[in-house]
Amino acid sequence: IDLRSLGKVAQAVAVLVAGLVAVDVEASAPMVAARLVVAIVGAMVVYAAIWIGTTSICFWLVDSREVSSAFTYGGREMSSYPLGVYGQTLRHLARFVVPLAFTAYYPVLGLLGRDDPLGGASWLAWSGPVVGAVAMGVALAVWRSGIRAYRSVGA
User: Fold this and answer.
1) Radius of gyration of the chain (CA)
2) Whole-number pLDDT of residue 117
């Protein structure tokens, strides 16, 4: 067991509990728990899809690690801010191309019971796992395409 990872999880849980208490969430405890499970599952699948999709680019590009890092680590940083701070192009990318908005933005709006100031529907707060499944399907299609195109060096 990695104590550093456990420390990060413990810190995240402590901040989450403190935040939920501080903002006085109006939903019942079972509803909050359900939204958290949906949010975590959705975020995990979205980030796994981003990782698989971007690392699959290595079948066509040499030394493409930076592409994966830009989308995964850069995406993590981007999703730590509300979408409203970004320009329209980045907001559209985070909602419709690389679905980072479904890892934190929409789940937090749903958890807090707030409407999306950008006009998104309230059901988007629950759609993370579905969006993640679609993203995973696209990522696996890119992976399969790369496997079919791969030609070994013969060594």
Assistant:
1) 18
2) 92
How far apart are the C-alpha atoms of 4 and 32, rounded to whole Å? 27
Kindly write down the DSSP assignment for every residue of 47-108, as one continuous string. HHHHHHHHHGGGGTSSS-HHHHHHHHHHHHHHTTS-GGGS-HHHHHIIIIIS-GGGTTHHHH
Which residues have CB under 8 Å from 111's CB, separation 6+? 20, 25, 27, 32, 35, 36, 39, 125
pTM: 0.84
Residue 132 above 90 pLDDT?
Answer: yes
Q: How far apart are CA 155 and CA 95, in angstroms?
A: 43
Q: DSSP character for 26?
A: -
The mean per-residue pLDDT over the stretch 117-136 comes to 94
Q: Which residue has the tokens 């728990």?
A: 33
pLDDT at 143: 95
To 5 degrees, how large is the angle CA 89–CA 92–CA 93?
Answer: 85
